[in-house]
Design goal:
globular, 1 helix
Length: 118
């Protein structure tokens, strides 16, 4: 029965992992909870009226972080990418297009953040 329990636990862990990796985090009302962003992987995606938007963490160097705003309109084959650079020694609240983020911790390969809702 021990092996069976372990198999069930592994199965559910894999299920959870695949559901997390299959799509970027989508919060309808950007609820302000702490979230993790990994280098190069979209951490926010938004679909509306022919436009697909993604936010991607571009890493940290010194006190500066990079966030990439990626937008694909209609049937465009490739998205337009805008790179935003922010100096965290000036402020830990940053604005990318219409999104405001509070950066809690930032490292070379990941960051913890919260959406600032209002």
């Amino acid at each position: 029965s021990n092996a069976l329990t372990r198999a069930i636990v592994i199965f559910f862990a894999m299920l959870l992992l695949t559901s997390c990796l299959s799509k970027p985090i989508q919060l309808n009302d950007r609820d302000g909870t702490e979230q993790l962003a990994l280098l190069g992987i979209p951490f926010w995606s938004d679909d509306r009226a022919w436009t697909h938007t993604e936010l991607i963490y571009g890493g940290r160097s010194g006190s500066e972080i990079v966030i990439i705003f990626s937008e694909k309109v209609g049937n465009d084959t490739s998205p337009t990418n805008k790179e935003y650079k922010f100096d965290l020694s000036e402020s830990n609240v940053v604005t990318v297009d219409q999104y405001r983020l509070k950066i809690i911790m930032a490292y070379e390969a990941d960051m913890m953040f919260r959406f600032v809702v209002n």
